Amino acid sequence: MFAALKNKLSGGVNKYSGRKDFLEAVCAASALVAAADGDVSDAEVDQTVKAVSSNASLSAAFKTSEIERTADAMLKRAQGGRVGRSGLYKELEDISSDHEMSETVLYSALDVADNGGISAEEKQVLAKIAQTLGLNLANYDV
Predict the structure, then answer these.
(1) pTM across the whole model
(2) Residue 55 CB: number of other CB atoms within 10 A?
(3) pLDDT greater than 80 at residue 17
(4) What is the domain-level CATH number for residue 77?
(5) Distance of alpha carbon 80 from its chain centroid, rounded?
């Protein structure tokens, strides 16, 4: 019984291991939400790293330093105007064909948005993230 559980849990890790595109997509969506109001606060930076690191599969597949580096790079891109943000949506498109990954990306973005309540600007960004991922935001208790 424990062997079956271990195989099931490690299967998620193996699925994500080496999938830098997945890590980038999670960080990109989180960064887009953090920058939705035009400013990225220290609390939003912390929440972005926390949202990514709290995902058991991602934290098992990637070292904390790699998660932090990727999150930092995506947050900088989010503050880079339209060009930076449009590039972040492309990161989402890279994994959009995988429903499980897409949902994880959206849930991470929702966790960042929930920090302090979801503003109108964040809800707009969340809707665009969901659309890019082929998901319906209304199905995710927003």
Answers:
(1) 0.85
(2) 22
(3) no
(4) 1.10.3680
(5) 18
**Structural domain contains residue 10:** no
Amino acid at 68: E
Dig out the tokens for 39 from the structure: 């400013």
109: domain range?
Answer: 18-140
Look at residue 94 and give its three-state secondary structure: coil
Q: Which residue has the tokens 């890590």?
A: 23
> Per-residue pLDDT tens for 103-142?
999 999 998 888 778 999 999 999 999 999 999 999 997 7
Q: Is 136 helix (H, G, I), strand (E, B) or coil?
A: coil
Task: Round to whole Å and give the CA distance between 48 and 52.
Answer: 6
Residue 55, classed as helix, strand or coil, is: coil
Q: How many CB atoms lie within 10 A of CB 82?
A: 7
